[in-house]
């Protein structure tokens, strides 16, 4: 559209609040809101940036919808942006991250570092220094010996595991500690995580001093480092994280912009405790000259406004249009669109940009998290954050393939920094049996034993990915426990693309880059396994097909009955003749040829 076409279209529009859409064919290029539709659209006759000029030039028509109020226009704009995903608008995409310390909701709770705590768990955080969090959790387990195993593993123990032997678990699974004593230890851990530093620091200091007196200087130095981490732990926004005198629900938001990508970090506080966190990625398709939006009435909402203030405006409307409002929203800076603030305040939400005190420290923590790179910038890093592990630069994927228990094989593929490392692919023939769980257990045990014994020339991976669901993951974890190979492991179930972890099953956003990475590894493991299975199956078929009197159907019956060519070879003539289509002469020929 040229300026005349825009001017002519604007003249037909009402002077009421509403939403307008620039469209090219059936594609929506941009959605905007207006207090006065006619004035707002007319302002596009003189675009203020090259990017806007390009958007207007591509459009072939302008659609609109009238609303009763400005607030309705604001919400309709947010809903249309999320539904239509116009390329020239800022678009919200979730990208949860940040480590938390969670104590699970279980009669015998476990402690873990996670980005995605299971339902009912008491979570503390978020924290920005994962290394410090890991050190503190190790100190907690060393002192109070809380279990770290999954509920599945806990429920199936008949003797204490290696953690008990190492002194970091009191083995409540086998009754080595009474439920009452374990509950006391859990209560002490809660007191520490809620801010009572001395609960953990004091015994650590005593142990450090005792080690120094006994001239165990290396041990004393290790305890000193651990003590420093513990004492600094609540300094990471500590006084900001906890304030039980505050009974409000509060969201803390900060935005960071890099090129055409923006991230918003959200911290959520209830009754003075940070109970949730999320990070959200927004696509700001227009970045060109970086002009800010004109705050004067009648100027178009500039798609090129790639400032944190503009990002917060877009985020606030899209996020809260479909969620409950908190009592207060704390922001790193004032949103560029004053209508957004008016809307929130009209809904009873207190909107503030704090300058000092506890609220300012919360905003600072959110801003630090918003500036962390992740998501599409680094899907490998995003995967590590999502799973609560170090960046999994090296991932190995496992799958099993067979035909009703015959020609059973396994694949082990490798990805390094998100790319296939074909030189490190491995494959293995497995025991013929129609048991997917046993087959996966054998495959992972084979890899683990080679690693533990130093017989595998490849580096240890940072993550194992199992093709399958809870059963396959459980089998793989059993193999790891039996061999003592300590490597994080998750599974990806095909049917609904669910990510299965030791702590539960999660559904990630379909467009999450970390999910796409897992899918690539899973699909490659499946392809490699199927390819090898076909090779082995063809070899088996050739051997039996060479036997006179054995056709494809008889071959399938033989393999279904005996499981493998080796078993067919070892079968008696009487057993062979029990198979439909195999007479005495054919049975004798099979025994002679094989």
Structure write-up:
There is one protein chain. The chain is built from 22 helices and 20 strands. It has 594 residues and is of the alpha+beta class. Strands 13, 14, 15, 16, 17, 18, 19 and 20 form an 8-stranded mixed beta sheet that branches. A 6-stranded mixed beta sheet has the order 4-10-9-8-11-12, with helices on both faces. The longest helix is centred in the last third of the chain and has 33 residues, at 513-545. It is flat and about 95 Å long. Mean pLDDT is 81; it is low at 236-244 and 285-304.
Secondary structure tally, helices = 22
State the separation between the terminal residues, measured CA to CA: 79 Å
Structural class: alpha+beta
Counted beta strands? 20
Inertia-based shape = flat
What composes the largest sheet?
8 strands, mixed
- Please state the CA-atom Rg, rounded to the nearest Å: 31 Å
Average pLDDT across residues? 81
Query: Considering DSSP H and I runs of 4 or more, what fraction of the residues is helical?
Result: 40-55%
Unreliably modeled segments: 236-244, 285-304
| Beta content | 15-25%
Pfam families: GIY-YIG (PF01541), HHH_5 (PF14520), UVR (PF02151), UvrC_RNaseH (PF22920), UvrC_RNaseH_dom (PF08459)
Subcellular location: Cytoplasm
InterPro entries: GIY-YIG_endonuc, GIY-YIG_endonuc_sf, GIY-YIG_UvrC_Cho, Hlx-hairpin-Hlx_DNA-bd_motif, RuvA_2-like, UVR_dom, UVR_dom_sf, UvrABC_protein_C
GO molecular function: DNA binding; excinuclease ABC activity
